[in-house]
Automatic annotation (TrEMBL):
TPR repeats lie at residues 342-375, 478-511. InterPro entries: TPR-like_helical_dom_sf (IPR011990), TPR_rpt (IPR019734). Residues 516-568 are annotated as: Disordered. The keyword tRNA-binding does not apply. Residues 516-526 have a biased composition (Basic and acidic residues). This is Anaphase-promoting complex subunit 7. GO terms for biological process: cell division; positive regulation of mitotic metaphase/anaphase transition; protein ubiquitination. Keywords: TPR repeat. PROSITE patterns: TPR. GO terms for cellular component: anaphase-promoting complex. It comes from Pteropus alecto (Black flying fox).
Length: 568
């Protein structure tokens, strides 16, 4: 009992000094104040409380830090009252000391930071709202704008972003914030016009604003052209941020080849780049380059594991390795680190859909659409969920809305045609839509795949072969080579079909359908050899059983290792 009593006494106050009387635990806060009163002046006590709270913040003890910041604000309030009541003593030493005290506004900002880390955004807004408008610094207005935007309060968010720009006309994040809230590019540019005219070498800024105005209105082609013109200027040549934006725009436009090239260029210029690497990892995984995805994930984890991107990249590796429970876990971890990560939401949604949990997947895709209303892949994921649950009507409504909202481009036309293919009544409409899409972009892979699917249903194999050969003239894609192989088999061109399957497997060794097509052809070409092999297998049955037993034990071992990732 003596030991535990000593421990309680030791824990009863934040500062330990010898010779202090025994303090019961329930009275520790009161006693802590009295100790501070005895040893320090009121201003020193305020400083110590702020320093204590700062140290707790850096140790990630956010709730405890909020408590100490609150105590500090109470102490500052009491200090202000006593300074008003006491007459001036003429002590010049006290004036500099009071000027060095931590700012009350800065303390409130740190409290808001704690609340955001605790995901208590309403409390953060309440704290910052309590600061008079004239006393709000640019960083306080910036945090308020971001919090309002996250809460869906667009009008106060726009007001706060504009206040940031009034104080700091070159705050690019505030410009992007306004553009993301549908403020006209011309209006945003007018707020920076004075500084552009007064500061040399800033003529690029108005073009930059124009480019990102196109980005946020979903006009990908004009955004790409404008950013490319910016990139050619000497001041912004090899700018990593611009290259990342360009890569993301190519991805949104469905030009995966150029997207990967720009990501690789940005990565070479900045080996520690994290932003956008989740999209880059996803594109590599789609191409079947799983070894490159694994290496990318390891490199990102070595840079930082406190960002969503490394977890998303590892999740993409698991997803395309058909380890959906692991992909689900990694996607959830990424969302925990950054709830606004669109790629993490898409990863988790896709994993849930493939695990048969379609309704949960729909929730994630809807949240992704809310965060990125101009990204077509968010809508594609949701429509795939509707089709998987036979909700063709909902899928059709969503596809029509996307078509009207994002405009009639090759991607939206193909998405609408995909839904039309599910209903026998709208087959002709699907054909018309796909023809329009291919007229706009003859090399758009998704449109080619869907048109080939339609021709296969109609058994127009020669037309399908011509379509696929034309699409493969300037690009090489695993899926296109595989479908061409299937069409060649249908017209008895077995040797060339085998060549196409081989090319597909060289591009993606994990493509199961190409492997199945090749194996099927081998069996059809040499049925006698297959019969002889079966006879030999029957004669060596005991040896085969031994191999199978080894295989089962290995599978069980992997299952044990992966069981942890099934946790949610």
């Amino acid at each position: 009992m003596g030991g535990s009593g000593a421990f309680l006494r030791a824990r009863s106050a934040p500062f330990m000094f010898s010779g202090l009387p025994f303090v019961e635990p329930y009275d520790k806060q009161h006693r802590a104040f009295s100790i501070l009163d005895e040893l320090f002046s009121p201003s020193q006590k305020y400083q110590l409380l702020v320093y204590h709270a700062d140290s707790l913040f850096h140790d990630k003890e956010y709730r405890n830090a909020v408590s100490k910041y609150t105590m500090a604000l109470q102490q500052k309030k009491a200090l202000s009252k006593t300074s008003k009541v006491r007459p001036s003593t003429g002590n010049s030493a006290s004036a500099p000391q009071s000027q060095c005290l931590p700012s009350e506004i800065e303390v409130k900002y740190k409290m808001a930071e704690c609340y955001t880390m605790l995901k208590q955004d309403k409390d953060a807004i309440a704290i910052l709202d309590g600061i008079p408008s004239r006393q709000r610094t640019p960083k306080i207005n910036m945090m308020l704008a971001n919090l309002y935007k996250k809460a869906g309060q667009e009008r106060p968010s726009v007001t706060s972003y504009k206040e940031v720009l009034r104080q700091c006309p070159l705050a690019l994040d505030a410009i992007l914030g306004l553009l993301s809230l549908s403020v006209k590019g011309a209006e945003v540019a007018s707020m920076t016009m004075n500084v552009i005219q007064s500061v040399p070498n800033l003529d690029w800024l108005s073009v930059w604003i124009k480019a990102y105005a196109f980005v946020h209105t979903g006009d990908n082609s004009r955004a790409i052209n404008t950013i490319c013109s910016l990139e050619k200027k000497s001041l912004l040549r090899d700018n990593v941020d611009l290259l990342g934006s360009l890569a993301d725009l190519y991805f949104r436009a469905g030009d995966n080849k150029n997207s990967v090239l720009k990501f690789e260029q940005a990565q070479m210029l900045d080996p520690y780049l994290i932003k956008g690497m989740d999209v880059y990892g996803y594109l590599l995984a789609r191409e079947g380059r799983l070894e490159d995805v694994e290496n990318l994930g390891c490199r990102l984890f070595n840079i930082s594991d406190q960002h969503a991107e490394p977890w998303v990249v590892s999740g993409c590796h698991s997803f395309y390795s058909k380890r959906y429970s692991r992909a689900l876990y990694l996607g959830a971890k990424a969302i925990q680190l950054n709830s606004n990560s669109v790629q993490a939401l898409l990863l988790k949604g896709a994993a849930l859909r493939n695990m048969g949990r379609v309704q949960e997947a729909i929730i994630h895709f809807r949240e992704a659409i809310r965060l990125a209303p101009c990204r077509l892949d968010c809508y594609e994921g949701l429509i795939e969920c509707y089709l998987a649950s036979n909700s063709i009507r909902e899928a059709m409504v969503m596809a029509n809305n996307v078509y009207k909202t994002l405009g009639a481009n090759a991607q939206t036309l193909t998405l609408l045609a995909t839904v039309c293919l599910e209903d026998p009544v709208t087959q002709e409409k699907a054909k018309t839509l796909l023809d329009k899409a291919l007229n706009q972009r003859p090399d758009y892979i998704k449109a080619v795949v869907k048109k080939a699917e339609l021709l296969s249903r109609e058994q127009k194999y020669e037309d399908g072969i011509a379509l696929l050969r034309n699409a493969l003239a300037n690009q090489s894609d695993c899926v296109l080579h595989r479908i061409l192989g299937d069409f060649l088999v249908a017209v008895n061109e077995y040797q060339e079909a085998m060549d196409q399957y081989s090319i597909a497997l060289s591009l993606d060794p994990n493509d199961q359908k190409s492997l199945e097509g090749m194996q099927k052809m081998e069996k059809e070409e040499s049925p006698t050899d297959a019969t002889q092999e079966e006879d030999v297998d029957d004669m060596e049955g005991s040896g085969e059983e031994g191999d199978l037993e080894g295989s089962d034990s290995e599978a069980a071992q992997w299952a044990d290792q992966e069981q942890w990732f099934g946790m949610q």
